[in-house]
């Protein structure tokens, strides 16, 4: 039965990947760029769902974990001469190790204390980055993956190459996460979330499993950070503001923080919000401050509406109405 479920999930993800490749051949470069960003945000949202939705640990500083992976990818390419594909693996690995170390420090924390610690990490990121010359200060570090392979032909654009990389990385990682959450570890994570005391009395090492969940989530976030700086061709403190953490958390809440099925919808929403804000500003006008603040306002309003009307995501609401 277990092997059947794994095979079924594998076939579903293969079908989604095939559909994305077909779509990628039929849309323009703007849509490809937006699709790559959707896949990147979906992966980052999946890392929050893994940590918060399944192990019950609230993080408000996931942008900092993404930044760790982003800097690791850029530095490993520029200073070590590694290929971009290996650099993305390094991004996930370094961020996972960072999450492991941080997890040991916050394993005893929960609720607002854990959230406050991760929030402080995200707030202090620009100051920390500016203290080390190797990180490039405010200018940051460039990350260029180069042109797509010549074997794909001259009509294969850079945007399509970005889309392929982001879509494939997101699908593979989300497939791995779904298999982990469907295994024994997923059940243990849910036990930690629902009742840590009962889990501890049943013989589960709560502290160790929290650290494992934090490390896995950080690794996924680090990969998402590496993909994001690939799209913007460089990493700097301004690329990972605190607002990014709140946007990702909003995406997770809107699509259902206890389920991975809606992560692509969450990524689509986060990409659409700036477009909606720009459209509103072009129609009604407004000052520069209003233009800058509107996307954040829309994210905040969306989070409030989601918490009030669909706290477990639209999928749970439809399932409830069906029954």
TrEMBL record:
It is found in: Cell membrane. This is Unannotated protein. The chain crosses the membrane at residues 34-51, 82-104, 111-129, 161-182, 211-233, 292-312. Keywords: Cell membrane, Membrane, Transmembrane, Transmembrane helix. The keyword Repressor does not apply. The keyword Membrane applies. It is a multi-pass membrane protein. It comes from freshwater metagenome. GO terms for cellular component: plasma membrane. Its main location: membrane. It holds the Pfam family BPD_transp_2. GO terms for molecular function: branched-chain amino acid transmembrane transporter activity.
């Amino acid at each position: 039965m277990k092997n059947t479920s794994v095979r079924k999930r594998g076939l579903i993800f293969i079908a989604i990947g095939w559909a994305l490749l077909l779509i990628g051949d039929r849309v323009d470069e703007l849509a490809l760029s937006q699709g790559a960003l959707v896949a990147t945000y979906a992966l980052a949202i999946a890392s929050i769902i893994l940590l918060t939705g399944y192990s019950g640990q609230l993080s408000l500083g996931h942008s900092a974990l993404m930044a760790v992976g982003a800097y690791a990818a850029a530095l490993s390419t520029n200073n070590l001469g590694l290929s971009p594909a290996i650099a993305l693996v390094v991004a996930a690995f370094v961020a996972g190790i960072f999450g492991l170390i941080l997890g040991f420090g916050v394993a005893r924390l929960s609720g607002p204390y854990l959230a406050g610690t991760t929030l402080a990490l995200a707030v202090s990121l620009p100051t920390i980055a500016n203290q080390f010359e190797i990180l490039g200060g405010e200018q940051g570090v460039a990350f260029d993956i180069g042109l797509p392979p010549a074997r794909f032909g001259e009509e294969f654009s850079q945007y399509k190459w970005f889309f392929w990389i982001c879509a494939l990385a997101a699908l593979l990682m989300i497939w791995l996460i779904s298999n982990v959450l469907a295994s024994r570890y997923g059940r243990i994570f849910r036990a930690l979330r629902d009742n840590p005391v009962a889990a501890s009395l049943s013989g589960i090492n709560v502290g160790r499993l929290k650290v494992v969940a934090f490390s896995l989530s950080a690794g996924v976030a680090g990969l998402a950070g590496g993909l994001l700086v690939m799209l913007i061709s460089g990493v700097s403190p301004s690329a990972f503001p605190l607002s990014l953490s709140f946007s990702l958390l909003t995406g997770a809440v809107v699509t259902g923080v206890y389920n991975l099925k809606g992560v692509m919808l969450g990524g689509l929403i986060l990409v659409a919000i700036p477009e909606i804000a720009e459209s509103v500003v072009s129609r009604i006008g407004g000052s520069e401050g209003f233009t800058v603040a509107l996307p954040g306002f829309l994210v905040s309003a969306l989070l409030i509406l989601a918490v009030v009307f669909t706290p477990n995501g639209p999928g749970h609401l439809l399932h409830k109405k069906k029954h």
